[in-house]
Every structure is written in C-alpha cells, then in structure tokens.
Specification:
heterodimer, A: 480 residues, mainly alpha, two-stranded antiparallel ribbon, 19 helices, B: 490 residues, 20 helices, 74% helix, globular
C-alpha cells in the first residue's frame, strides 16, 4: 500500500508521455489514453480513501539526492485533497473532449493537462516541504503553458503575469525552504511542527506566506488571478480555480501546522496579518466581482473572495476555523468548477462572454443554467448547499476567536455574492429577448459537457457528510 | 591530514597537452577536416594520467612534483582534489569549444585558430595544476595572452578594438600580479601552496592580496574590471567565447580560491575587514550584470552580462568563507559552464541559421529551430534555479552558506537576481515558441545540425539536469569532498 501515493503521482506523467508519443494513433486510442490517465489516479485516491484507517501510506524509499530528497506520504489531509483534485480533473477532462474538439493543439493541451495533474498530486502527496516545492515549481511551468493555450495577445499577457508572479512565489518558497532546512536540518511534516520562534524563522514564515499567498491569490498579490482565469480554456479555468489556487492554502496549512507549529506562527504575529488580509480579500474580491461584466472575470474575482474564506479559516488558528477552511476547499472546488464549466459551455456554444448578453439564456440552455443556479446558490451560502456549512462554522469560529467583526465581513460578503450571482440567474430565466411566452430556440450542448457540469453542480447540494467528517478529522489532527 | 606524494602525472598531463599543441601546428594542414580529432585526442590523453590518480586524490592524497626548470624557484605541479576537479572539467568543457571550433570555421587560418585554442586549453590546465604562485603566473600569462589570437580571428575593426581592450586590461592585470608576487617574495620567500595559507601577515599584505585579487577578478570580469567582456563576447568567434565563458572565467575564480585558502588563509579577509568590501563587490557584480543584461538588445551581449552576474554568484560563494557557500560556488562553476555553454551554442546556431542576433528578432524562431530553442529554454529554466536543474543546487548551497555566515540578505539578493534572470531570458523563450500567430504545428520540422555540434548540444542539455536526477548527485559529492579538503587544513 505504501506505493499508492507514488503511483498516483507517476501515472499521469506516464500517460502524458504516452499521449505525446502517440502522435499517429487514432483519435479514439488517444482519448482512451487520456481517460485512463485521469481515471487511474482517481481510482488510486479512492482506494486510499477506503483504506483510510491504514493511513499514512508512506513510500518506503526516498527519491533524488540531498538537497532534493523527497518521498511520498498520504495522510488524511493528502488523501482528502487527492480525491477531490483527481475527481475534478476527471470531470474537467471529459468536459475538455467536447470543449476543445475544434481547437488547435489538442495533443499539447491533453498532454499538459495530464502532467499538471501529476504535479498537482505530487504537491499534495509529498511528505516533505522539499517535495512540495519541487512539484510546485513543475506545476507553475506546466500551468503556464495551459494558460496561454489560446496564444492570443490577451492570453500571452495574462500568462506572463501568471508566470512571473508564480516564479516570484517559487523564489519566496525557496527562501523559506532554505531557512527551514538551515534551522531544523529537515523539512518533513510532523504534526505540531518542530521549529522555534526566531527572527530568521519569522522571515521564513513570511516568505512562505508570501509564496503561498501569491499562489492562492490573496489580496495584494492576487493580480495574476483575474487575468489568468478568463484567459485559460474554460475547463482549465475550472481547475485553476478549483484545484491550483488551493495548493496555496494546502501549503500554508502544512507549513503552519506541520513544520513551524501554531505557537511560532502566533509568536511572530503573522496570524494577525493574515487575518486582516483575508478579511480585506473577501470584501475586495466580492466588490470587484460586482463590477465585472465579463462572466469569467466575475467568477475569477469571486474566487479571490472565496479563497479569502479559506485563509481566514487558517488565520483564526482554532480547530473549528480550520475545519471550515478545509471544508471550504472542497465546497469551493465543486461550485466554482461548476460555474466555470457553465461559463465555458455558454461561450463555446453561443459565443457570449458578457453578463449583459446573458438575458434569456436560461431558456435556451436550461440544464447549463440550472447547474449555474445551483452552484450560485451554494456560493451565497444558502442552507442545504455545501458552502453553508463552511460559512456557518467560519462564523462560529470567528465568535469563538472573539472577532465579531469578521461575522459582519462574512455576512456582507454573502450579500455581495447574492448581488452578483442572482441577477445573472434571474435575467437568464425570466428576462430576455422576445416575449416571455414565445418558445425559445434551444442551444444544443454536447453531452460530455452537459453531464459533467450538471454532476459537479448537483454535488454542491448537500453532498457534505463524508467530506465534513474527513475535514473534521484533519482539523482535529492538526490541533491534536 | 593530507599526505603528500611525489608523482609525475600532473606534470605529464600538462606536457602532453603542449606536445599535442605542437603536433596540431605541424599536422593541421595535412589532417584538414580531421584536425579536431587530434585536439580531442589531446584532451583525452592528458586527462588519463590525472584520472589514474583520482581514487588516491579523493582518498586524501596530494601529489606534487617539482622541476628545476626556472631557477631559483623551480616549476612545480600539484594535484589535489580542487585541481583534479577543475582540470577534468576544463578538459571536458574544452572539448566543447574544440568541437565547435572545427565546425564553425574553415579556411586558411584554421590551423592558427585550432592551435591557439589548444594552447589556451593547455595553459589553463597548467594553471590549475601549478603548485605555486610563480608557476601559476607562468601559465596564467600564457593563457591570457594567447587568447587574443582567438579574439582577433575575424580581423575586422570591431574585433581588433575588442582585442585591444582585452589585451591592455590583461596586461594591467599581469603587472598587478607581478607586483603582488614581488610582495610575497619579500614577505615570505616561498610561493608554494600550503593548507591554511603561508602569508597571513606582513608589511605588503594588502598589496599582495589586492594585486592577486585584481588580476583574477579581471580574468573573470568582476565589477569594476568587466569592461572587456561584452565586447569580446559580441565580436569574437563562437569557440573563443565558449572558451572564455566555460574555462577562462573559471580560472579567475579558481585562482581566487587558491589565493584565499592556500596563500593568505581565510582569516585574513576577516581580520583586515576586507570581507564586507569583497562581498559588496560580488553582490554589486550580480545586480549590475543582471541589470545590464536586461538592457542589452544583442543576444550575445545579453549573455555576456548575464555571465558577469553568474560570476558574481561564484565570487559571493568564495568570499562568504563558509564550507556550504564554497560548495555552492564550485558547483556553480560547473553548472554555469554547462548552461552558459549550451546557451552560447544555441545563440551561435541561431546566428548561423537565421542571421539574427537581436532579441526582438527572435520571435517565432522556435518554430524554425525547435531543437535549438528547446535547448535554450532548458538553460533558461536552469538559470532561474528551478528544482531539478543544476543551478538550484548552487543556489541552495550558496543560500545555506549565506545563512551560516549570518547574512540572510544575501540569500534574498540571490533570489532577486533569479527574478531578473527570469525577466530577461523567459521573454526570449516564450516569444520564440508561443503567441506568434496561427501557424499549423503539423509542419514543424527539426533542424539539422553538424554532427559534432549535435552531440555537444545533446550532452550539455542532458548535463543540465542529469546530475540532479541521478540517485546520487556525484558531482555534488565531489564538490563537497573538494571543499572538505579546503576547510580541513585549518
């Protein structure tokens, strides 16, 4: 069982190489390669989830020489992330078959999609910060190539912003990693951490915070996010928002809880900084989202706001808040994934990119807009939906942490969410060109796009028991 | 402790090289296209006697030999871990320049060019195997002065101007070296390397140290003695540039290590308060080189200034005076030689195939020369210090060394410099492949190379990451062994 994490990471890379070499094969064989490449990691993650009580799955050997030594280890948190990510990837890949059927560079796209999954799983399944860093850098370079897939000016500009900011993030992580190794002589994850507070440790923690915040899209360093998300192909936007920015959150949790320890983080007062920035991010992202007319940009700013929830949950440094943060990773991955897939379906089938053009679209594409409605309702945090749970617990945790102002932030943000999502839904179904009773022309959506979008949206609705239990266990383990 | 043995091999390696230089001069016209086999044979033949001693050297032995050739001081050779590592890497990297030299140039002066190239390599080998300051001076001068024959090869006005600049500065450097040599002679009366230094104090200490330091800094284009470099890069033929970047720059750094560890002793820098000044110079070299590189539009000039910044890393590692930093420094000499050699080869290939050398003209060039640009991209990713590539290790060790020396800001400086590297290399890489409009990818065809060039390109490209991906990074282990020998003598 110890090989499972390593296999889950390796398989997508192997299949991406296979796909790259299969230039002359027939379309359906190539499709089969891609499908296997995303199915197998998901299956492996599921196996790990089923045999959770045997966790952590630790790979017996370590790879590469010092200072790049790393090995794989899947504990509950890693498995949680791996299952979530590989599931999202599975849906996004199936969606991509239809979405990209007429695009250029399909082999490039799918090769990169598979290898980014490998890198992503590498980030969450590595047992040391070194391995996390290694896969993180790999992920940056590969993701860049997907962001610029369209190769128009807008994509190139957005890609450049993404690339340079991510490289800066990587260098910040390098600083943190180097200092961590210098101070402790190790970089593995141990629950509770193993470092002491010192000025150097504070600088390293700040560097980690900076690096992961860039990746996650925290307020002053979020600049790449609203550019890169709209520029990328829609299924990959869904992955960027649902999975890749979550690696920043994941890394921060690991650094705070498993390397430095909560006490050090609190001692150097970075939790206050993160708290303030997260609150600002929540409000800022929502306000900016309200101003956007381009649908994908609106969704991107909404991601900025939502990542603020996750970081707020981390910054509060109590068990309930961490539970909310981890659960929100799950909830947001599904709902934002669904929203981006909807946006992609609309753009690819009707060419409409702007919110102002979407009047009446709900009657032309009822299933897609139905999915959109579900996901949007979840975004706002209405009770039977997943995001309600994270917001509820985040609110409670703020009160427990004696920060009642944060409850106000959460409430305002939910209100803003409603303000920028519901008009889209209402206009889509109840307004629109032509008289209301006239039968609208239905827009056909390929089945592959349709059911993946619908499935993702349906899962936003009350599919919360197991993830919540798991998130609770992870949070409890982090705080003993 | 190290044990010393007498052995003829280090001297033999140098003399074999000079013998082949003579052979090359005599036979070049007859061999015609096959002349480079002779040079390659020279490199292999001179490496063999050194490699036979490798096990003993890494077991802790030092081999010395002395000939009474230059009375009253004698000509001495010494093979220890540092000189072994440098000598073998010079021979391997010199091979790149030799192979490239045969392909890039035909015509009547091939004989002169190839002979001079081999002579410079032989002298560089002599310099790293020399056992004392005076013998080193001999080879150092032979190497530096002969190099001008390569620079002026094209014979046009620009290359003549670059040559003059180089020559005058070199002569200035050798005068300083000579003055410092005199100061050492007056102070101590002997020149041979000793662990921990043999000239820790004396009336002319400052003259001796700064004289040598200036000569070596000039050789490796450290600020403010870098003026010759960009002109030479822009105007000399490619093999000469390769030689300069992969071998000659490194001889300066090698000299500096010897100087600090085997002539003055590392404490001297701290006791006299010179370390902060030297660190500041190295840091400034890094920033200045990067900023200048950013400003250059000519690809070769950009590479020249970037090389200057990289030399700054190497010097930073030397001046930090911690074992980890020195490991990073020596490792960076190797990694820089590999990625910069690869970049220069690619730049030469681009120039040859498309005639373009300005950075703006390189848009879309990756579609015409995919293999070349993939190699260039690999190097660009290497220089940023992304994990599986060599420079990551240099930076890691330099960073650890900076932290051990209590200078975390220098680590930040390294990272800022990496960011600058990214800023001036990545646009070239990106622009050459992506965003150049709708072109069907199906029609891509790989360019054809001359066979030696292809071999060298492939080897260098693989060397960028192969050491890191092997289960045990033996180049790093060798470097660590070298450094442990240097720091054990104290």
């Amino acid at each position: 069982m110890g090989h499972l994490p390593a296999m889950a990471v390796l398989i997508p890379f192997v299949f991406s190489v296979l796909l790259f070499l299969s230039g002359r094969c027939r379309q359906k064989y190539r499709k089969a390669i891609v499908l296997l490449g995303v199915l197998l990691p998901f299956a492996l993650s599921l196996v790990m989830l089923v045999f959770l009580e045997k966790a952590p799955f630790t790979s017996g050997k370590s790879y590469l020489a010092y200072p790049l030594t790393f090995f794989f280890r899947a504990d509950e948190f890693s498995i949680f992330m791996a299952v979530l990510f590989s599931f999202c990837y599975l849906l996004a890949t199936i969606y991509s078959f239809a979405y990209l059927s007429e695009s250029h560079g399909q082999r490039r796209y799918f090769t990169l999609l598979l290898s980014t999954e490998g890198a992503l799983l590498g980030v969450v399944l590595s047992a040391t910060l070194t391995g996390l860093f290694l896969f993180f850098e790999l992920m940056v370079v590969l993701c860049y190539l997907l962001v610029i897939h369209d190769e128009n000016n807008k994509a190139m500009l957005a890609g450049a912003k993404y690339l340079y900011m991510s490289i800066a993030a990587g260098l910040a992580l390098f600083y943190g990693l180097n200092v961590t190794y210098y101070l402790a002589g190790r970089t593995d994850f141990v629950s509770g951490g193993y470092l002491y507070a010192s000025p150097l440790a504070a600088s390293a923690l700040f560097a980690f915070l900076l690096g992961f915040a860039i990746k996650a899209g925290l307020f002053p360093v979020h600049l790449w996010l609203p550019e890169a998300h709209p520029a990328a192909p829609a299924p990959f936007s869904a992955m960027l928002s649902g999975c890749f920015i979550k690696t920043g959150v994941y890394g921060l949790v690991r650094v705070i809880h498993d390397v430095y320890g909560v006490a050090v983080f609190r001692a150097v007062a970075l939790d206050q900084l993160l708290l303030v920035l997260a609150a600002v991010t929540i409000i800022f992202g929502s306000v900016r989202a309200l101003q956007q007319d381009e649908l994908k940009r609106r969704l991107a700013y909404s991601s900025v706001a939502q990542i603020g929830y996750c970081l707020l949950g981390i910054a509060l440094l109590n068990e309930r808040a961490l539970f909310a943060a981890i659960f929100h990773i799950f909830a947001h991955a599904l709902m934002k994934g669904a929203l981006f897939l909807c946006a992609g379906a609309i753009v690819s089938q009707t060419g409409k990119k702007y919110v102002s053009e979407l009047s009446g679209i709900g009657r032309q594409m009822p299933i897609v807009m139905g999915a959109f409605t579900l996901a949007a309702a979840s975004m706002v945090g209405i009770p039977p939906f997943n995001a309600f749970i994270s917001k509820w617990h985040l609110g409670l945790a703020s009160l427990e942490g004696a920060q009642p102002l944060l409850v106000a932030v959460l409430v305002i943000s939910s209100l803003l969410n409603a303000l920028y999502y519901f008009p889209i839904v209402i206009n889509a179904f109840f307004a629109g060109p032509g008289p209301y009773d006239q039968k609208p022309v239905k827009v056909a959506v390929p089945a592959g796009m349709l059911w993946t979008t619908a499935l993702m949206a349906l899962l936003c609705l009350g599919f919360a028991y197991w993830p919540a239990v798991l998130a609770g266990r992870i949070a409890a383990a982090a705080f003993f | 402790m190290t044990q010393t043995l007498h052995s003829w091999q280090p001297a033999a390696a140098v003399f074999i090289m000079y013998g082949f230089v003579l052979l090359q001069w005599l036979c070049n016209n007859k061999l015609k296209d096959r002349a480079h086999y002779l040079s390659v044979a020279a490199l292999i033949a001179s490496m063999l006697p050194l490699l036979t001693l490798a096990d003993e050297v890494f077991a802790g032995w030092v081999f010395v030999v002395e000939y009474a050739l230059l009375p009253p001081f004698g000509l001495s050779f010494r093979l220890d871990r540092l000189s072994l590592l440098m000598a073998v890497s010079f021979q391997l990297l010199g091979g790149v320049a030799v192979l490239c030299g045969t392909v890039a140039h035909g015509g009547s002066s091939t004989r002169r060019f190839q002979t001079a190239l081999l002579f410079v390599l032989a002298s560089a080998l002599g310099m790293v195997l020399a056992g004392d300051l005076l013998s080193m001076y001999l080879f150092f001068e032979a190497m530096s002065l002969t190099f001008f024959i390569l620079v002026i090869y094209r014979g046009d006005r620009l290359s003549a101007a670059a040559t003059m600049k180089y020559l005058y500065m070199t002569i200035g450097g050798s005068v300083l070296y000579f003055a410092a040599l005199a100061a050492v002679f007056v102070g101590v009366g002997s020149f041979a390397w000793q662990e921990g230094g043999f000239f820790p104090s004396g009336p002319f200490l400052w003259l001796a140290f700064w004289g040598f330091a200036a000569a070596f800094a000039l050789k490796s284009a450290m600020f403010p003695l870098h003026f010759w470099m960009a002109d030479v890069y822009a105007n000399a033929p490619l093999p000469a540039v390769l030689l300069s970047s992969m071998v000659l720059l490194k001889t300066g750094a090698y000299g500096m290590i010897r100087l600090i560890h085997h002539v003055f002793g590392p404490e001297v820098l701290g006791q006299n308060g010179w370390q902060p000044a030297l660190l500041a110079l190295a840091s400034f070299t890094i920033l200045y080189g990067s900023v200048c590189a950013f400003a250059q539009r000519d690809l070769l000039r950009r590479l020249a200034y970037s090389g200057m910044a990289q030399l700054g890393y190497i010097y930073l590692g030397i001046f930090l005076l911690t074992p980890a930093a020195l490991t990073g420094s020596i490792y960076h000499m190797m990694s820089h030689a590999v990625f910069k050699g690869l970049m220069l080869l690619c730049a030469g290939e681009i120039l040859k195939q498309t005639g373009r050398r300005s950075v703006e003209q390189l848009f879309g060039v990756g579609r015409q020369l995919p293999l070349t640009m993939i190699c260039f991209s690999l190097s660009a990713l290497t220089v940023i210090g992304l994990p599986p590539f060599n420079v990551f290790f240099s930076k890691w060790y330099l960073g650890t060394g900076a932290l051990a020396a209590g200078q975390p800001l220098l680590l930040v400086l390294l990272l800022v410099s990496s960011m600058l590297n990214a800023a001036y290399y990545l646009p070239i890489v990106i622009g050459s492949f992506f965003g150049v409009g709708e072109q069907p990818l199906g029609k891509l065809r790989c360019e054809s190379f001359a066979r030696p060039i292809f071999t060298v390109l492939a080897l260098l490209a693989i060397a960028n990451f192969a050491f890191a991906l092997s289960p045990e990074n033996w180049l790093l282990r060798c470097t660590e062994a070298v450094v442990s020998a240097l720091y054990q003598g104290e």
